[in-house]
């Protein structure tokens, strides 16, 4: 059994609810776990997109001059994201899914 398989098995044991993992079919993101269908042109329901935008903004503002400075900005901006901000996006998933259903898959405010 591979290390990644063991990690997934450990996660599945620790999660109190039934979770569905999603993947984007990028070969480095694939795993041998059951996944749900995810149409290529579907609205992005990934709450981490908002957090990645925070990091991109920090990088744009800092204007790093080399890879080391870039890495430092990324690490510092990631560490500066408040837990409550992360929780807010995770907690919004129900509303995001409901909005997608209401709009029959078309764009939402998210």
TrEMBL record:
Superkingdom classification of source: Eukaryota
Entry-linked InterPro entries: RNaseH_sf (IPR036397)
Matches recorded under Gene3D superfamilies: Ribonuclease H-like superfamily/Ribonuclease H (3.30.420.10)
MF annotations from Gene Ontology: nucleic acid binding
Protein name: Tc1-like transposase DDE domain-containing protein
Classification of source organism: Eukaryota, Metazoa, Chordata, Craniata, Vertebrata
């Amino acid at each position: 059994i591979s290390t990644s398989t063991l990690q997934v098995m450990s996660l599945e044991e620790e999660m109190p609810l039934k979770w569905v993992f999603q993947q984007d079919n990028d070969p480095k993101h694939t795993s041998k776990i059951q996944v749900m269908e995810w149409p290529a042109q579907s609205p992005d329901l990934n709450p981490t997109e908002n957090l990645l935008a925070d990091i991109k903004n920090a990088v744009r503002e800092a204007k790093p001059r080399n890879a080391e400075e870039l890495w430092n900005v990324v690490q510092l901006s990631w560490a500066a994201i408040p837990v409550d901000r992360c929780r807010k996006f995770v907690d919004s998933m129900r509303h995001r899914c409901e909005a997608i259903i209401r709009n029959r898959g078309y764009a939402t405010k998210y």
